[in-house]
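hiii, so i know i said id send this last week but things got crazy w the move. better late than never?? heres the sequnce for the chain we talked about at the cafe, plus the structure i predicted for it. fair warning i was half asleep when i ran it
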Amino acid sequence: MNTILRKSVLGVAGLAFAGGVFAGPAAAHAAPVVESGKPVAVAVQAEKPGVDRAKLVPHGVQGAQSRIDLSDEQVGNVKAIIAATKKAGMDERAAVVSIATALQESKLENLGHLGDRNDHDSLGLFQQRPSSGWGTVEQITDPEYSTTAFLKGLKQVDGWQDMPLTEAAQTVQVSAYPDHYAQWEQQAADLVAEHWNS
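okay and structure toks below
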């Protein structure tokens, strides 16, 4: 390659590089790479928009945190809770409160009647009771319905956004173990960060 042609190619490559640096990483990687005179395809993966983690856990977590591995079914229930939260017009924090509540109540499993181990007639992700007016058995065991019912209760709690998670959840759930919700806040926040924009 003669000197003038080599300088021209290097000059164009330098401009392309500089343009990529100033335009951002996606533009820098979008141009095809030429190696040994053969074009090589470059895949560009757009990053999902991030979730503001400060909104997920605005008060910090309270106490020791628990964490469980989730099955595909449990992850599906996480996604159903997030979808219902969005449909209700509520934000990521509401999803964190909902998921942490469901982690405590059912470990994100859509539980049917548990026989002698059942707490009264509690069912579904949130262990809601038909006898307490949460809905029919069919409704309560539908993840979208049960999440919407929980969120409806949460909306009625004045200032829930400014409460610690366990207080907001307890006000809706009226549990015999009100402090137990707090242990799931970090895992719930991680799940919302992972799945909110997926």
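btw The chain is about 50% helix and 5% strand. thought thatd interest u
miss u guys!!
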